[in-house]
Structures are given as C-alpha cells and as structure tokens.
Amino acid sequence: MLGYGNAATWQNRELRVEATVVPRYFWTTASVDVYLDNLRVIRTGGVFKLSGAPTAEFERDGKHHVMQLSWMSRTTIRYQLCVDGQSVLESRVLFPRNWPLLFLPALAIYLLMTAVEYLMHTAY
Length: 124
Description:
five-stranded antiparallel β-sheet; alpha+beta; four-stranded antiparallel β-sheet
C-alpha cells in the first residue's frame, strides 16, 4: 500500500511504518515512525537529513530483538525495516499522514510578502 504508511505481520503482531510531517521553524521535515501493535518502537523525530538508519531494542515473549529502519528521502520516503537482521518490510511512503502541513512554509512566505507589499503601497 502506498500512502500514509505500510504494514506487515511479524510473529503474529502488526508492524506499521508511518510518516508524519514535523514543522521546523520556516520549513518542514518528516518523522518516520515504526509501530509494533500500536506501540511506537522507532521514531526518527523529523531530523533534517536525507537518510538514516536508527535502531531500537525491545523484548517480546522474553526474547531480546533488534529492529533497524533504513530510510532515504528524495521525492518519496523509501525504507527497509529489519528485525533481528531479517528484512520484514521494504517499501515507500508517498504522503505523510498530515501532508497538508507541508504547505505551511509556503503560506507563511506568501503572507509575509503580501504584508510587505501592502505596507510599501500604503507608505506612499
């Protein structure tokens, strides 16, 4: 499924990868998050980078597991999710869940330019 996120089953549990827009000052970034049965295990936090590979350790049924999310962002967010070194999910996310926030910086710039133009015309 291309869209807000993707899901897979791992040991009878749902693994889900989602992207969310994170506003930062005058720009926006995306946080790529991994959920195991609605519990967030990995969160990239909207860092201003084009790629990353965060890892997380967790326990399930008394066993220790390591999860790694390798991601790269250009026009879409491509990623590979591995648990204990085995690829579980590999796909891409086209649109973050709250994608309309991507337009906030452009709207802010437009409003600022409009205000400056208005003030310049009223000053004369």
